[in-house]
Design a protein that fits this description.
Strands 1-2 form a two-stranded parallel ribbon. It has one domain. The chain is built from six helices and two strands. It is elongated, with a radius of gyration of 29 Å.
């Protein structure tokens, strides 16, 4: 009698009753998977943040040490005729390019601010540098070598681009408003500085006396 009652009870269950029995475990399983996925992502993000912070700290430390090197001071104050100076320039350039390609746009901005404030922009070639989505507002980038650099969606508002080498750069969505340039600035083909709302400033007599009549990269 008991078995017949149980069988009858099972047979009388509706589709919704069966769905209820399945939905609750399924929802619990889905919630568990979602929580695991979220925690994994948070851990990965934290690890990535830690790695980038360590890389940035190491970069600034290495660059500061190099800047204290007497040979590097010669590199800044004189021409690049010295083989040792050339070697140091190659090392700093490679180190900087790796750092820029590894870290987030926010940290790329910190690197570029460091180089700009230290007056190193025109001494460290940044060919093919990854500067996508980087905030470069009002930075001193004068005479910088950005040949083939990726500047997509970067913000160069008010930046000093006088004499900058910008051949073959990528500049989709890049903001150039009020960035300054002169006759020595080298742009990609079909680049229209006026359409980008840039400001032309002819070289002063003082700049010509210091830099010479010929543009730095000519």
């Amino acid at each position: 009698m008991s078995n017949l009652f149980k069988l009858d009870k099972i047979q009388n269950k509706t589709l919704w009753d069966w769905l209820e029995l399945l939905i609750i475990p399924f929802c619990l399983l889905l919630l568990s998977c979602l929580m695991t996925y979220t925690m994994d992502n948070l851990q990965k993000k934290e690890l990535n943040e830690q790695k980038e912070n360590e890389l940035l700290k190491s970069y600034f430390s290495d660059m500061t040490s190099l800047m204290m090197n007497p040979i590097y001071k010669t590199l800044i104050e004189t021409t690049l005729s010295d083989n040792n100076a050339n070697e140091i320039q190659q090392i700093t350039s490679a180190r900087t390019l790796v750092a820029l390609d590894t870290v987030s746009p926010e940290r790329r901005s910190k690197i570029m601010n460091f180089l700009s404030d230290a007056g190193l922009i025109d001494n460290i070639p940044l060919k093919r540098a990854n500067l996508t989505e980087t905030n470069l507002k009002y930075l001193w980038l004068k005479n910088g070598n950005f040949h083939s650099a990726n500047l997509n969606k970067a913000d160069l508002t008010g930046a000093n681009l006088k004499g900058a080498k910008l051949y073959f750069i990528k500049y989709e969505g890049t903001i150039f408003n009020d960035a300054t340039y002169n006759e020595c600035t080298k742009f990609p083909e079909k680049f229209n500085a006026e359409d980008k709302r840039m400001i032309y400033q002819e070289r002063t007599k003082k700049e010509i006396d210091i830099e010479g009549k010929q543009c730095k990269y000519e």
